[in-house]
Each structure stands twice: as C-alpha cells, then as structure tokens.
Please model this.
Amino acid sequence: MRANTWAGRNKVEVRDVPDPKILNKRDAIVRITSTAICGSDLHLLDGYVPTMQDGDVMGHEFMGEVIEVGPGVAADTLRVGDRVVVPFPIACGACAACAAELYSCCENSNPNAGIAEKMFGHPVAGIYGYSHLTGGFAGGQAQYARVPFADVNPLKIESDLADEQVLFLSDILPTGYMGAEMCDIQPSDVVAVWGAGPVGQFAMDSARVLGAAKVIAVDKEPYRLRMAEQAGHIPVNFDEVDVRSRLLELTGGRGPDKCIDAVGMEATHGSAHIAAYDRIKQAVRAETERPHALRQAIMSCRSGGVVSVIGVYGGLLDKFPAGAWMNRSLTLRTGQCHVQRYMGPLLQRIERGEIDPTRIITHWLPLAAAPHGYDIFKNKEDNCEKIVLKP
Amino acid sequence: MELTAATTVRKPATEVYAFWRDLENLATFMTHLEQVRVTGERTSHWVAGAPFGEDVEWDAEIVDEVPGGRIAWRSIGNADVPNAGTVRFVPAPDGVSTEVHVVLVYDIPGGAVGKAVAKYFGEEPHQQLDDDLRRFKQVLETGEVVRSDGAPWGKRARKEFPQRPAQPLSDAELAKGAEP
Ligand SMILES: NC(=O)c1ccc[n+]([C@@H]2O[C@H](COP(=O)([O-])OP(=O)(O)OC[C@H]3O[C@@H](n4cnc5c(N)ncnc54)[C@H](O)[C@@H]3O)[C@@H](O)[C@H]2O)c1
Ligand SMILES: [Zn+2]
Ligand SMILES: [Zn+2]
Model:
C-alpha cells in the first residue's frame, strides 16, 4: 500500500510499504477513506518528539471501513463492513486507567512502555503514527491501518453523515472539547483560547456550547483569527497588540476566568529576545519546549481561574511561572485527550447540528500530496487551516 | 544479584495467583525463559533462552506457597545459575485489583554463562523484570502480549532500540519473526 512516512527531520515521503496484518487477536484492519494532518504531526515532523525512525508511517486521525477482524473480536462488537472512526489513543478497555476513562493513559497498549516511563515517570498509552515512545504503531496517513483492541476502540458510524462530518471525532474535536470541559465553564465565564489552529477552533466552539459568556481567540495568523471571528469568537492578534492589556480590556480588568493553551511546545513569541532565549535552549536541547502561550495564559488568567492545557508538551520547560500559579490559586489541568470518552456524545451533538466540524476544513488533497500538505500547514500558506487526505 | 519489581493487575488475587502457579505460563511473559515444564506437584524444569547463554537449564522446586497469597521457589541440583524467587499477591486498596510483588535472586557464576547473564541484565537489571511484569499484566488483563509494528515480537523484543520502523511487516519478516 501507499503510506506517508517520516523521512528524517522536516521531511515526509509517500512510499510503498507492506499492507498491515493482524498481529494480535483483537486487531482489525481498516481500509482508510479519510485521514488528516494534525498540529501534533508537526511536532514529529521537525523532530521535537524523540524516537522517530526513518520509515515510520505518520498519522493518527483516520476513519474507514473494516475489512478484516482478528479471532478475538466478537461479532457483536465489530464486523467486516462496519464504517468506523478510530480514536488516536489505543486503549485496552480493561486496565485501571481505562476503567477510569483515562484512555490516553492506558497501562497496556504501549509495547514500549519502558521507554515512555523513562521520559515521563510512568508510561502512556500507545498512539498511532506518533513515535516509538508511544509504541511504534504504524499510522493512518495510509491506505490501510491495523487497529489494536478493535472490539473496544472504534466508533461505528451508522448514519449517513459524510466522512468530513465525523472524521475529527478521531482527535481534534474531542480534544478541543476536553480543553473546554476541563475549564468547568460557568455561564458568566470569559474563556480565552491561545492558538486558532484546528484544535483551538474546536476548543472555542466547545466553550460556547458549554455556555461561556464570551470566547476570545489569541493567535497571529490573520486568516485563522478571521475564521474564529466568523464563528462568533473575539480575535486578538498577538503580533499587533499586547495580549495581556487587550485581555484586561475585554474583561473589565479581571482577566479571563478560564484560559486554554491550544498551542503547545512550538509557540512563537511577539517579543524577539524572549523567543530567542527559548529557541536557543530548545535548539541545544537544554529545554525541549517554547512555552510562550502557556506562560502568557498563566499570567493572564484571573485569580482562582483554570488554565487548561491541550497543546502538547514533550519534555522539560524553563521559566515556568510557578509564583503566579501558586500565589493566585490557579488550577492547571491537562492531558492527551481521552477521545473514547467523548466520541459518542459529540457524534450526537454533530447529528443535532450543535457543532459543525467541517467549518475548519480548507484543503482536500490526495494522499500522494501529503508532503505538500505538511508544507502549507506548517508554514501557514494558502490560508491552510485543516487538511483532509484521501488515500 | 537481587531484583525486585511490582505491578498491579485488575483481577482478583485468586486468578492472578492461579495464572502464576501454572508455572508453564511464566515463559509467555518472561523474556529470558524459553520454556517451563511442570514435572511434579512441586517440581519443574526450566529452560532459559539465548540471552542467558546457550543451553542453560535447571530444575526448580516450590518451597513455600499460600494459595492466593504467595509462591516461593528455588533451583535445585547443579543449576548453572542458581536462583530463587518469591512472588506475593496482595489485594490492592481499590478492592478489585491485586498487587504483585516479585523478588528474584541470582547467584551469578564466573565463566561464559556468568558473562552472558551479566550482559543480559546490563546496566539496568531491574528493567528486564519491570518489562516482564508489564507483559504479565497485559496477558492477564487483555489476553495477550501487545504487539506493534515497531515492536512486533512481544516478549522477544529484547533490545528496545533500535527497533524496526513503525510500518507494517512484509510476509518475509512475519515468517522470520514467527520462527522460535
Ligand atoms: N491534547 C491532545 O490530545 C492533543 C490532540 C491534538 C493536538 N494537540 C496539540 O494541540 C496543539 C494545536 O494543534 P493544531 O492542530 O491546532 O496545531 P496548529 O499548529 O495548526 O495550531 C497552533 C496555532 O498556535 C498559534 N500560535 C503559535 N504561537 C502562539 C502564541 N504564542 N500564542 C497564541 N497562538 C500561538 C499558531 O499560529 C497556530 O495557529 C498542538 O500542540 C497539538 O500537538 C493536542
Ligand atoms: Zn491529532
Ligand atoms: Zn487500558
């Protein structure tokens, strides 16, 4: 089959690789009908997440049709012919983390748990196409994929919703939603979201669905801010204004009640010397993150507020504003999304028309054009917000 | 050399104990074991794989056991690598899971076998046992040792790095990997 693979730092290549096969009894093989490129793929692309190998199949957002199931998949759970969306964290459904619905912390799905444990103190779940730290699972930017624990993970789509209406249930819609849910939103809340990428956009929509009074989008890409504005959110361009002052203005001097970091480890900074400090430290690997958005979110949040982090961090960061966090009674909440927890309820919201996941799609490309897709998505060219690939 | 490790399995102690007490199961998750054959009520024959040096075999006997609670064993006769082990099964505070506490003691000899064993355990000897217990937990909780494209060979994924790329295996690779 054809698959988009990592080919060294800042390079992906569509190559011929073998078709996936059943390796465990509870596996299924899915013929992929739609797949997407994610901001998380960009962290892998430039090598900020360690343990990538030349030839690794990329991609963790995919859906398609089941074409084969292993002998351990009961027919009442999944059958050949089922149309499914596959959640990006691989969960066993049986461990204590899965029982607590902490699927991205599944204790059994990562065969390289020993490596993850060294990095993170305790291991994390397997994830498709997301480095060997999370298991070395081939990803979904391909024609076919192997899906482990297929009896408990995929979401069956039984209605006639189009691929693009349900594809993002695999990751970014649940992720944005979890970002808002962790904020424990009250009707009077002003919620500010750093990052108007696909994840940030869905965090904004979710904050509104959960009842926020006002939702603010912080980014520097005018076309992304415009997209947020068209969806009814208030844009703040960090290249043009001082974010903290503007946020104070928008909240009567209080600061946002809830702040969401949907940027992660590769944030850029309006202030050149601070950006340079973190860039150099990141380049020499003395620090693995450029946490500008996180720092600003913590400094901006009103006392007693919540800072919810869904942007990805991989290692160590510097100059964490611990004083602001501690002295002003802030709550920090975070996590790789526990996608399986949200897929069903969000599918219902889509069916009821409460959320329109298609509004962020700007590009449909054939799988063969994946390298071009990575290029324009990374460099914010051609007004690129979200790319759907057709294998 | 003494190694200790612990894991928690979301199953009742009787079930976790029973799986371990069926000593032939140990080879499904302990990397260095090729086979364990039960030879009597309390005796068994153990065969270690290549990482322990060629043809390392020994007999063992269970020296103490409390059903659902504890098993202790030790090698008998002229074992190349005299060894002993204890595993305790303790109900976890959550009321549904079982804590599994393992202690293994190896009397590492000189000569080629001793070198092979020392090399196998490397600089972080407890890592092997940690990984063994992770697979033990996988088998009990999910039914199998979990495989990925990058680490497809279950307990035989001895050297975690470098591993093969995270892309599907060819038929030839699969056939090769299926060899014992
Ligand atoms: N927690 C999870 O489970 C999960 C799941 C998916 C994605 N993610 C992460 O979410 C983040 C966003 O993903 P995406 O697909 O939207 O990526 P993206 O790269 O398209 O979006 C990031 C946006 O942040 C903006 N940005 C950069 N620096 C900023 C700053 N200092 N302040 C405000 N905005 C800034 C960029 O201009 C860009 O628009 C990534 O870190 C990704 O890895 C997390
Ligand atoms: Zn993603
Ligand atoms: Zn699990």
In short: The pocket of zinc ion (ligand 3) is lined by residues A 91-92, 94-95, 97-98, 106-108 (CB under 6 Å). The mean pLDDT of chain B is 90.
